[in-house]
Description:
The protein is mainly β.
Amino acid sequence: MAYTTINKSSDFFNTKLFTGTGSSNAVTGVGFQPDLTWIKNRGSAYSHQLYDVVRGVTKRIYSDVNNVEETDAQGLNAFGADGFTVGTNVGVNQNNTGQVSWNWKANGAGSANTDGSINSTVSINSTSKMSIVKWTGTGSNATVGHGIGIIPEMIIVKRLDTSSDWAVYHMAQNSGSSPEDYRMRLNEAQRNYATDYWQDTKPTSSIFYLNGDSDVNASSGTYIAYCFTSVTGYCSVGKYTGNGNADGTFIYTGFKPTWFLQKAMDGSDGDNWTIYDSVRNTSNATGQLLFPNSNSAESDNGNLIDIVSNGIKIRNTSTGANGSGRNYGYMAFGQSLVGSNNVPCTAR
């Protein structure tokens, strides 16, 4: 069994559904004061909006487009002890429309980090091994400190001061041993071979590497990154190979996932990033989908995956999730099978 020091995963990550009111709306029930909140309007084609405590409230970036960071007092305008408050913006609070928020706990507004050649501001959760990192670019080869103390397996970067594509590092980008040779964009479905994001060098336990590409390190450009890595019984970042069969691949995570992000990592044929969670999808099979690279409303594609007590069972033959011999990457958060308090996690 997968033992972990994280006995209650919802102390570090939680999905909270709410219904928009069209007026100021205090959303509670998250279970902690979030430091990163990602909101999607489930019923309408509005962009995904991401807010974090390091950049500050009202400052939003969109996962599905390359837009500059925007400031809107009617977006998420306060983080509270048990949630957040949203204003009248229809993307996060459309009247009588379902919304989903995914929330992570870091460590407040952050502090200075000097591990890299570029000084950064870093908000670190040393238990759940995630961090929010902000820096100003130099336009040439550089390193940035991430603070989590072990090698990050997924890094999501967005330039803030001008329109620029998202940049994603994932340990499964190449079926071989060099994921740093590839780049993906959260706002696009394609994956490309290009060494200009990550300096063709794997991150370390203290820093990640950047070239001078404007998406990650333009001179005087400002950037935010979200860094994650696997934590036994709570977070799994990994890869799997599809079998092209309705009795699909089983992905062992060591816990019951409550959130699952998945993406085809080979080819460049446009397979979407896809998010499932156990709060929108309360029973198997799970098929209510949202796509980080698309503003589309939630779709229900039926029998796609099963969320089980120790992982994910693929239940479809789509090339986006289970093409025969294809390589896929994922990140999952969830509840341990048994924590140090010996409380079991059962299947649903």
